[in-house]
Write a structure and sequence with these properties.
Helix content: 25-40%
Radius of gyration: 17 Å
Strand order of the largest sheet: 1-2
Structural class: alpha+beta
Number of strands: 2
Strand content: 15-25%
Largest sheet: 2 strands, antiparallel
Number of helices: 2
């Protein structure tokens, strides 16, 4: 059974995101959320606004992962130089 979607503000109550650029219109979202469960254990979950195009989503996630990896390596190399 799939749960009904509710407004993003209700799912992420009290949280905020960086705004989109002027003139951009949101179409769908894939959000990774770090949560604390009922026992206080942290875990990661994801939520989507609608069923995404999985191939497009995989490509976007791979690009973001590669960019994050590059940033982390760059930070590590800068720390080594100091």
């Amino acid at each position: 059974m799939t749960e009904a979607r509710i407004p993003v503000a209700e799912v992420l109550a009290g949280m905020a995101l960086h705004p989109l650029q002027d003139g951009w219109t949101p179409v769908e979202a894939f959000v990774v959320i770090k949560c604390l469960d009922a026992q206080g254990k942290s875990t990661w979950v994801y939520r989507t606004t609608s069923a995404p195009n999985r191939e497009e989503l995989l490509g976007a996630l791979r690009v973001q992962a590669a960019l994050l990896e590059r940033e982390l390596v760059d930070e590590y190399l800068v720390e080594d130089d100091e």
